[in-house]
Amino acid sequence: MERVPILKIGGVLLVSIQIDLHDQSVLALQEDLAEKISATGAHGVVIDISAVEIVDSFIGRMFATIASISRLFDADTVVVGMRPAVAITLVELGLTLGGVRTALDLERGMKILGQLGRQRRGVLPHSGELERDF
Amino acid sequence: MPPRSGGPEELRISGDDDVVRVRQLVRTYAQQTKLSLVDQTKLVTAASELARNTLIYGGGGFARVEEISDGRRSGVRASFHDEGPGIPDLTLALADGWSSGSGLGLGLSGARRLVDEFDLDTEVGRGTVVTVVKWKR
């Protein structure tokens, strides 16, 4: 089974999926990320799927699970680089990825995480923070 | 039966790796048939859901992929065969959000929406065959 590498850039963990995902690789990635967020105290996770040709319900659910796990460690998750054909297919499949933040590309994803990070460090208490899920 | 142009190929589904192999095989056929990129993606995604069903609920089985033609247009047919427990309540199994396992319940109903033709043949205690077709537009 191939493992997906997790890179750390400042307070952000970057996961770029470059392989055809086995279900076991998906589960391993969830575990590896939880470990890594916990160990590094990262405030954000970016999952780059620009090389991913298909997202089925199992892979889609991974994004939601990773977002939920990161939230428990007070970190935000952004999925970036979804291909147009994948987006169309996901909608038709019925997978809404509710609760998963997405951005067009890596640059925008990093920007979003930067903003969220600043918000966190800035004005406190942040009233909007708890309602982020909506 | 429509005449075959690209011969059929079969793949055993007995593990995780096989789900990935089925995806790759279906993609090869979809490209050969020159389906659009969106249609390729839809068919491969449907195949991925169905191959996983064969593995998890059917206890393994095989997939069969072939290029077909109805005289006017060409397409790809993929079928998924298992000798598992079968599906006792089809209406329920095809309903969105219903799952007998740990899935999201989008497997069957979702796959059905992604293809042009969807056929489900199941018998309790005997097994299940799901066949899908995507035509070239």
UniProtKB/TrEMBL annotation, chain A:
It holds the Pfam family STAS. InterPro entries: Bact_StressResp_Reg (IPR051932), STAS_dom (IPR002645), STAS_dom_sf (IPR036513). It comes from the Bacteria. CDD domains: STAS_RsbR_RsbS_like. Coiled coil: none annotated. Gene3D superfamilies: STAS domain. Residues 2-113 form the STAS domain. This is RsbT antagonist protein RsbS. The lineage of its organism: Bacteria, Bacillati, Actinomycetota, Actinomycetes, Pseudonocardiales.
UniProtKB/TrEMBL annotation, chain B:
The keyword Transferase applies. Residues 39-132 form the Histidine kinase/HSP90-like ATPase domain. Keywords: Kinase, Transferase. SUPFAM superfamilies: ATPase domain of HSP90 chaperone/DNA topoisomerase II/histidine kinase. Signal peptide: none annotated. Pfam families: HATPase_c (PF02518). Gene3D superfamilies: Histidine kinase-like ATPase, C-terminal domain. GO terms for molecular function: kinase activity. InterPro entries: HATPase_C_sf, HATPase_dom. This is Serine/threonine-protein kinase RsbT. It comes from Lentzea xinjiangensis.
